[in-house]
Amino acid sequence: MFVVRALPELSSMILAWAALLLLYLFLRHFLYKPVSQFLNDRKAKIQSDIDGAKTLKEEAITLRDDYESRISLAKKESQEIIESARKRGEELKEDILAEARKEAEGIVSRARREIIREREMAFQDIKSQAGEMAILIASRIMEEEIKMDKQNGLIDKFIDEVGNSKWQS
């Protein structure tokens, strides 16, 4: 009897195995493959995102380095421009000062020449007036023949008259 009992269990076992195999094939075809494909697609997308993030990070680092070098270069150029402007300002200052000195020397030189000319003109006026006075004095002396005391008084009087009229006009 032992043999008989084992056979019905064997048939149910084979049937269970067949059902399990069918269930496995069914699940594998309709569930495992799509889930596996979904997981592989998801894994590929995640890997793609990671690779993209690495690429973006490398580009960001490159851009940052580029911007930092540009900023450094711009700072250096601005310092050079400032230094150049300062030097040009100093040169302009020196040029303006030199021109001002030259102009001042010209003004002083013209003023000295004008003073000398005015002084010479004054001497010429004095000379001509002195000559005229001498002639007038001599003519008055000749008109009147008087003694030395009277002549001196007459000369003083004449100088006072001529001085007041000629020198003031």
UniProtKB/TrEMBL annotation:
Its main location: membrane. GO terms for molecular function: proton-transporting ATP synthase activity, rotational mechanism; proton-transporting ATPase activity, rotational mechanism. The keyword Ion transport applies. It comes from the Bacteria. Residues 57-95 form a coiled coil. It is a single-pass membrane protein. The keyword Membrane applies. Keywords: ATP synthesis, Cell membrane, CF(0), Coiled coil, Hydrogen ion transport, Ion transport, Membrane, Transmembrane, Transmembrane helix, Transport. CDD domains: ATP-synt_Fo_b. It holds the Pfam family ATP-synt_B. Belongs to the ATPase B chain family. Component of the F(0) channel, it forms part of the peripheral stalk, linking F(1) to F(0). This is ATP synthase subunit b. It comes from Tissierella praeacuta DSM 18095.
